[in-house]
Write a structure and sequence with these properties.
The complex is a heterodimer of chains A (197) and B (590).
Chain A: H1 5-12, E1 16-21, E2 28-30, E3 33-35, E4 44-47, H2 48-56, E5 60-63, H3 70-82, H4 94-104, H5 112-140, H6 152-183, H7 189-196
Antiparallel strand pairs in A: 1-4, 1-5, 2-3
Helix pairs in contact in A: 2-4, 3-5, 5-6
Chain B: H1 4-21, H2 34-42, E1 47-51, H3 55-71, E2 75-79, H4 83-93, E3 99-103, H5 111-114, E4 123-127, E5 130-131, H6 135-138, E6 145-147, H7 160-163, H8 191-222, E7 225-226, H9 230-240, H10 246-261, H11 267-284, E8 296-303, H12 313-319, H13 321-327, H14 332-345, H15 349-352, H16 361-371, H17 374-379, E9 386-393, E10 400-401, H18 402-414, H19 422-432, H20 441-462, E11 466-469, E12 472-476, H21 493-507, E13 517-522, E14 527-533, H22 546-557, E15 561-562, E16 570-574, H23 578-588
Helix pairs in contact in B: 3-9, 3-10, 3-19, 9-10, 10-11, 10-18, 13-21, 18-19, 18-20, 20-21, 22-23
Classes of the chains: A mainly alpha (197), B alpha/beta (590).
C-alpha cells in the first residue's frame, strides 16, 4: 500500500547528516551499516535517526545540512514562486528532515525562526501549485499527467483525496454512460449484458 | 630466557613498593576531577541516591538524574528527613549496590559510623552544603568517603597532624624494671631514669597537644553555616561531562535563589554565584539569537516581591516579608504608608490591585524603574527592593522568574496534604521543576503559604507574643486559629523565622536587634519545634551557634529532645518539657 506520513518520516531518518560528537567511541557494527569511530570534536557522517538520538542525549552537536540555511532557502523560495512548474528540492525528504531536526534541537540551526518560516512558505507555494494542477486535471477530464520534482510527502498529502475523488468521478461518468445508452433504446442482449456489468 | 611471569612479578613488586610508601591518610578525600574521581567510579554500578528534603536537593537531583539517564547509570532515588530515616533507608537498600551518593545529608556527621562501618567496597560520595564538615569524613582511613566540594578559605579545617597522633606508650609500664645493673652515664642518671624522663616529657607534650586539639575542634565545630548550594556543584559536574544545557542552569538558579530567600547565603556571595551562573548562560546560548522554542534565561534587575507576576502588585506588596517588616503594614499606620508610597510613585490603586496580567503595559514596564527610584530608597527605606534575578521565557508563554519558581517548589515540598508521604512530595517537587510543563498548582500553594506566614506575623505582633527572658527573645506561636502546616521542617522554617524576627524587631524595642531569638512552633500533639535564630539573621546570613547549644541540651535532656534533622538549629522538644528546655538554655548561655 502507499506509505503514510509516519512511514515517510521513518524513511527520511535514513538520510545522512553531519554531527560533531562529544564523546569517543570505536566503530560499531550495526545491522543496517557501520557507525564509524567517533572522536570528540571531529565531524562524522551518520544517518539522521542516530544523529537525533545522540542529540537528545546531549552527546553531539548537529551540523545543519547546507540547504537548511536562510540564504539558500530564500533563493529556493524565489525560484519556486517564479516558476509555474515544480523546482527540484535539495532533498527528497526536506520537510520531514526539517521537522525532525526542529523538534529535537532548534538551537543548533542559525536563524531557526526564519528557516522555519521559509520552509513553510516553500511548502505552501508548492501545495497551492499542486492544488491548481489537480483542479486543471479534473476540469479537463484528462486521464494522465506527468509531474516532475514532486516529493513523496506532497504526493502523500493529496493522494487520499485525489484517488478517492477520481474514483467518484469515474462512477459518475459510468452512470452517465449507462443512462445515455439506456435512453438510446438499444436493448440488444449484448448491450444489456454490458450494462449490467 | 625471558619469562613473562618474571615481568609480571617485577611489576607487582614495584607497585607494592610504590603503594607502601604513600601514607594512606595523607590524601585528602576531595573530588578534584569530576569525571575521573566521580563519574568513572559510578559507571557500571547502580547508584543509591539519598537526599535531604529541601529545595536545593530537589534541584540537584533534577540536574544529576538527567545526566545519569543519558549516561545509562541506573539509580535508586530515596529521600529522608533526618538521621534515623537515613539509616533506615540505607539498611533497606544497601544490599542492592555499593555506590552511594548523599545529597545535603551526612556531611556534618560521621557517615561510616552512622551506617555501621560498611565493608571496604562500598563508596560514599557526599555532596553537602552544610558546614562544618565532619573531620572523620574529611580524613577517613578507609578511603570510602569522598566529598564533592571545593574548600573555601573560611572553612579552616584543622591540619591532619593537629588532630591525629599516636599516643605515646605509658611511662608507668616501666615501673617494675630493675635498675641494679645499669651503668651510670655522664649526667649522673642511669639508662632507665633517662628513658623515664624522656617518656614523661613526651607525655607532657601529648597532654598539651590534646588540650590544643580539643580547643581547635571546639572552635571548628562551633559555628554552623551553609556554603555553595549543591546544585551549583551539580551544574559543574554536568559541565565537566559536556552535557550541560539550559534546563540544568535553570535548576541551579532556582537553588541559588532559594539560598538567598531563606537566608542561607549573604547577598555578596549570592551576587558572586549569580555572575558565575550568568557566565554559564552566555556560554551555552549561541552568539546568535536562540529560536523561540528554546528556554532563554536572562539576568536582569527584577522586583524582590514574592509572586507578583501571578498575583496583583498590591497583594504582593502586602505579603512580601521585606516590605511588610520595613513599612510595618500590619498596623493602620503602615497600611497608610504603603498607599502613600504607591501614590508617590504614580501608581493608581485601581491598576495596582488588578491581576498583574491585566495591568496596563506601560505601568508594567516602568515598575522596576519606579521601585528603584530615589523616592522609594530614601523616604521609605527600601533599598533592596530591586535585585539581580533570573527571568526565563520559552515559546510564547508568559515569563516567570526564579523567585516565583523557588517559592512554588518550596510550597510543593512542604504542602500539608495528609495523603501524600514526604517522599511523594519530594518527587512531585522534582517533577514540578520541569520548565516546559510548569504547573500553576505550585504557585497557588505558594500563595497559601505566604498568606499563612503573614497571618502568623500579624498575630505575633498584635498579641505581643514576644517575651524577653535573659539574653534571649522567646516567641511562642500558638496554633489556635491558624495552622502553619507549611512550616514543619527546616526546608521552609527560615522563611517564617526570619520574617518573625524582622517584624518583631520593627514592632518592638531597638535593643532587640542584638539578641538571639528562640521561636517555638507547635509540631503535633506531643512535640514542638524549637528554632534558634541568630541576631541579624534576616539581614544577612550569619553563622549559627545554636546547633552546638542544642546538642548540649540534648545530652542533658535525653529522650525528650529529638535532634534528628541535618540542620541542627531546629529540634523537636516534648511539649511538657518546655520549661526545662528554656531553663537549660538560659543556664548554658551564662
Amino acid at each position: 500500500m502507499s506509505p503514510t506520513p509516519e512511514e515517510l518520516e521513518f524513511f527520511a531518518g535514513q538520510e545522512e547528516l553531519e554531527i560533531m560528537p562529544r564523546f569517543d567511541c570505536p566503530t560499531m557494527w550495526l545491522i543496517s551499516g557501520d557507525l564509524g569511530p567517533f572522536k570528540a570534536g571531529i565531524p562524522n557522517k551518520v544517518p539522521l535517526w542516530i544523529a537525533l538520538h545522540l542529540r537528545a542525549q546531549n552527546k553531539c552537536k548537529i551540523i545543519p545540512p547546507p540547504w537548511l540555511s536562510k540564504a539558500y532557502l530564500e533563493q529556493l523560495k524565489e525560484l519556486e514562486i517564479k516558476s509555474p512548474l515544480f523546482t527540484k528540492m535539495p532533498s527528497e525528504h526536506y520537510m520531514a528532515m526539517a521537522k525532525m531536526i526542529f523538534e529535537v534541537c532548534p538551537q543548533d540551526i542559525p536563524d531557526a525562526d526564519c528557516v522555519k518560516l521559509l520552509i513553510k512558505d516553500i511548502w505552501d507555494s508548492r501545495m497551492s501549485k499542486l492544488r491548481t494542477a489537480v483542479l486543471t486535471f479534473i476540469d479537463k477530464g484528462a486521464s494522465w499527467a506527468k509531474v516532475d520534482n514532486l516529493t513523496q510527502l506532497e504526493m502523500c498529502s493529496i493522494r487520499p483525496f485525489f484517488t478517492h475523488s477520481l474514483e467518484q468521478l469515474h462512477r459518475f461518468r459510468k452512470t452517465i454512460q449507462v443512462a445515455r445508452l439506456y435512453s438510446a433504446g438499444n436493448s440488444s442482449e449484448e448491450v444489456r449484458r454490458r450494462l449490467r456489468m | 630466557m625471558f619469562d613473562v611471569r618474571d615481568m609480571v612479578y617485577g611489576q607487582w613488586l614495584l607497585e607494592e613498593q610504590g603503594r607502601s610508601s604513600v601514607p594512606p591518610t595523607s590524601t585528602k578525600m576531595l573530588v578534584e576531577h569530576y569525571r575521573r574521581d566521580f563519574i568513572e567510579r559510578i559507571v557500571g554500578h547502580r547508584l543509591i541516591i539519598i537526599t535531604n528534603q529541601d529545595v536545593d536537593a530537589v534541584c540537584t537531583v533534577k540536574i544529576l538524574t538527567t545526566l545519569f539517564k543519558t549516561e545509562g547509570i541506573q539509580y535508586i532515588l530515596l529521600s529522608c528527613s533526618g538521621l534515623t530515616e537515613l539509616k533506615a533507608k540505607y539498611d533497606e537498600y544497601n544490599s542492592q549496590s555499593d555506590r552511594c551518593l548523599l545529597i545535603n545529608c551526612g556531611g556534618t556527621i560521621d557517615v561510616l559510623d552512622l551506617l555501621g562501618n560498611p565493608p571496604r567496597e562500598k563508596l560514599f560520595f557526599i555532596l553537602d552544603y552544610h558546614r562544618p564538615l565532619n573531620i572523620l569524613n574529611y580524613y577517613n582511613t578507609t578511603g570510602q568517603v569522598v566529598i564533592i566540594s571545593v574548600l573555601e578559605s573560611e572553612e579552616n579545617i584543622p591540619e591532619f597532624d593537629e588532630i591525629f597522633r599516636e599516643e605515646p606508650p605509658d611511662s608507668s609500664e616501666e615501673e617494675d624494671d630493675h635498675d641494679d645493673d645499669e651503668a651510670l652515664d655522664a649526667n649522673g642518671m642511669n639508662e632507665r631514669q633517662r628513658r623515664k624522663t624522656e617518656r614523661r616529657a613526651q607525655r607532657q607534650l601529648y597532654t598539651t597537644w590534646v588540650k590544643k586539639r580539643e580547643h581547635l575542634l571546639f572552635t571548628y565545630r562551633e559555628h554552623f553555616y551553609y556554603s555553595r548550594p549543591s546544585a551549583l556543584y551539580g551544574l559543574e559536574i554536568v559541565w565537566g561531562m559536556s552535557r550541560d544545557d539550559m534546563e540544568s542552569v535553570w535548576s541551579a538558579i532556582v537553588s541559588l535563589t532559594d539560598s538567598l530567600v531563606l537566608g542561607r547565603l549573604p547577598r555578596p556571595k549570592y551576587c558572586e554565584y549569580a555572575s558565575t551562573v550568568n557566565d554559564h548562560i552566555l556560554r551555552i546560548s549561541n552568539a546568535n539569537q536562540l529560536p523561540r522554542d528554546c528556554l532563554k534565561i536572562r539576568f536582569e534587575r527584577d522586583l524582590f516581591l514574592f509572586l507578583y507576576r501571578h498575583w496583583s502588585v498590591y497583594d504582593s506588596l502586602k505579603t512580601t516579608p521585606y516590605v511588610v517588616s520595613t513599612l510595618k503594614t500590619w498596623s493602620q499606620d503602615g497600611h497608610r504608608k504603603l498607599k502613600q508610597m504607591l501614590a508617590h510613585l504614580g501608581l493608581p490603586l485601581s491598576e495596582v490591585k488588578q491581576k498583574y496580567a491585566n495591568m496596563s503595559l506601560d505601568l508594567r514596564r516602568q515598575l522596576v524603574e519606579m521601585f528603584s527610584s530615589q523616592v522609594v530608597v530614601e523616604n521609605y527605606k527600601l533599598p533592596d527592593l530591586v535585585f539581580g534575578s533570573f527571568v526565563a521565557e520559552i515559546g510564547f508563554r508568559p515569563k516567570f522568574n526564579a523567585l516565583d519558581v523557588q517559592l512554588a517548589t518550596l510550597a510543593l515540598l512542604e504542602e500539608p496534604d495528609p495523603n501524600k508521604t514526604e517522599e511523594e512530595r519530594f518527587l512531585l517537587a522534582v517533577l514540578g521543576l520541569d520548565v516546559r510543563n510548569f504547573e500553576k498548582g505550585g504557585i497557588e500553594k505558594a500563595k497559601g503559604m505566604m498568606k499563612q506566614v503573614n497571618n502568623q506575623v500579624q498575630m505575633m505582633v498584635e498579641m505581643k507574643l514576644v517575651q524577653e527572658v535573659g539574653p534571649f527573645l522567646f516567641v511562642q506561636l500558638t496554633d489556635s486559629m491558624i495552622d502553619f502546616n507549611y512550616f514543619k521542617r527546616p526546608a521552609g522554617i527560615p522563611l517564617l523565622a526570619n520574617f518573625l524576627q524582622h517584624a518583631g524587631i520593627r514592632a518592638g524595642k531597638k535593643g532587640w536587634r542584638q539578641s538571639p531569638w528562640l521561636i517555638m512552633i507547635p509540631y503535633d500533639q506531643e512535640y514542638f519545634v524549637a528554632v534558634g535564630v541568630q541576631p541579624g539573621a534576616f539581614e544577612q546570613a550569619d553563622k549559627n551557634i545554636f546547633p552546638e547549644v542544642f546538642r548540649c541540651i540534648k545530652g542533658k535532656m535525653g529522650e525528650d529532645v529529638v535532634g534528628d534533622w541535618f540542620d541542627g538549629w531546629a529540634i523537636l522538644v516534648k511539649n511538657q518539657k518546655r520549661q526545662v528546655f528554656a531553663d537549660l538554655l538560659l543556664a548554658l548561655s551564662e
